Amino acid sequence: MRNIREEVEVALSRVLEGTTASKLESSTLDFKEQGQQGGQKDFMRDLAGDVVCFANASGGAIIIGVDNKQSGPPAFKGTDLDSDEVRKRVYELSNPHLLVEAEARQFSGARLLVLFVQQSLDVHADTQGRARRRVATDCLPMNPDEVARLREERRDFDWSSQPSGRTLNDVSPTALEVARRSLATLTDEVRRKYARLSDRDLLAALGVVSEQGELLRAGELLFCETPLSPLLQYHYRQTPGGEPRAIERIETPLVLAFEKVLGLVQARLNQTPISLPNGQQIEIADFPQLAIREALANAIVHQDYRLRRPVFIDHSPEVFVVTSPGPLVSGVTPENILTHPPKPRNRALARAARTLGFAEEAGRGVDRMYREMIRSGRDLPRIEASFEQVQVKLVAGAPRTQIARFVAQLPEQERDDTDTLLILFRLCRSKTVTALDMAPMLQKSVDEAEASLRRLTNDEVSILEATRQTARLSHPAYRLRGEVLKKLGSAVDYQRRTMDELDRKIIPHVREYGKVNNRTLQNFFDIDVQRARDILSDMVERQLLVKISEQQRGPSVEYGPGPKFPGKRKPRTQELRLDNQRSPLPSPKKDTKTLPLPFQAGKRGKPRGNS
């Protein structure tokens, strides 16, 4: 409940600061105002129903006494409900009965009542027999199949570990051969030895055969043709909304289907080469291959096979979407999926997939998806969940190569740290962040987020620094260091400049000094050498600049005005001549009296006037 309590504290503070309460509601937080139509009896019935929704999902908190349509002090209406009476009525109006923690507190001059609801080990309904579950900010009904599935999950039932009725004679020799090849490539010596086992011993080592020699459902899915086919369906489109150009219904055992769909995706990936300062070159694909692999493995391992629907893969150069049947496992939400302990729906299948090297060994494939997308300069994965399906979406677009280049040069432990990469991702879009800002994104407590931020300020990592104004606070505001900003260049949103903005700064400089070079632009815009090179190349291509130095390579190459340089400066003599034509100087008069001399012309004698 620690994170829920922190979420309550943060939400109340933000409402007071001016955020509308409804914008802060989530799958684990709800605001309720006591003065609703229908009287207290109806209010208590609705409240008990909301408690049931949270208990059937991941638990959460309900704050009573706040108008969710308002913000600031007017949002805090207060409540006179007695905490013991509320606990009693919730218990009476839920089936099986539920006990909640009710805590009265004062905030912004109002008395509030906060109900803390634990995730239940059972499935609950209201007095009308309706079993509902919290999804995002809604309380949605569950049908009988969904209730049965949830109850099985809560009681630790594993569908994939049940007998399938199939024998070793039903196993595909090709699937076994592919499994052996996969095992033989692993770095783990123990698992490599599995590749040399007999068929029965191999299946036993994978945990997919009973002591009597009967295949479990996990073994049937991995190694046999099944009545559930097709297990995977792949569509390729040239544009996200276009007609499919390729459709593959893959009806082979999962061991073969997994490899086949990876091959289909791999054949259509485009690569972008990036050069590092040390001369090494890396390539960035439309979608990182490890992120694709984990998205597919998670869908295969965690889907609900009882729904008898295939995993659907929709692939275009811009978007890669994997949709798996069934909801997230009970207790897991998009808001906690990064930090929730591994909880596979099909444990026997998950163990076998990890042993074969198909899925993340530690069961944290979602972490890997996030890391790989950030490493390649892409946006974060988008995970959407409902009662019917879970969808993972990877979006391509032009990669932010500066991020990929910067991450590739980080120490290995930082390249592999999800917190580090998420903080870097956020600070490419926001000038500063606090632990309060990062906690929801890291899916950790505020104190844990603070520890991650503070670690990145030490001399060994030296990515962040606390702002001078907040450095003494318990939760300071952090920003990227100057040298990091320089390396990231235009990948940082608040540093990105348009072509017109660049031209407006560079052209006056060249007009005044007659030249510019790479080092000048680095200092001018606080960017790295590659970004400065790209700017100069673009201006040369547009004929605004040309090379004027004998040196042809390196940051000291000088550039001057090109054929299309605006308002090219005329020679000074020409300017003078043009000025004379426009406004001729007056001719001197012949009257000697006007001559500014101490002597009058043509006369001798002493000078006149003052000496």
Automatic annotation (TrEMBL):
<dbReference type="InterPro" id="IPR038461">
    <property type="entry name" value="Schlafen_AlbA_2_dom_sf"/>
</dbReference>
<dbReference type="Pfam" id="PF13749">
    <property type="entry name" value="HATPase_c_4"/>
</dbReference>
<dbReference type="InterPro" id="IPR038475">
    <property type="entry name" value="RecG_C_sf"/>
</dbReference>
<protein>
    <recommendedName>
        <fullName>Schlafen AlbA-2 domain-containing protein</fullName>
    </recommendedName>
</protein>
<feature type="region of interest" description="Disordered">
    <location>
        <begin position="552"/>
        <end position="611"/>
    </location>
</feature>
<feature type="domain" description="Schlafen AlbA-2">
    <location>
        <begin position="25"/>
        <end position="142"/>
    </location>
</feature>
<dbReference type="Pfam" id="PF04326">
    <property type="entry name" value="SLFN_AlbA_2"/>
</dbReference>
<dbReference type="InterPro" id="IPR007421">
    <property type="entry name" value="Schlafen_AlbA_2_dom"/>
</dbReference>
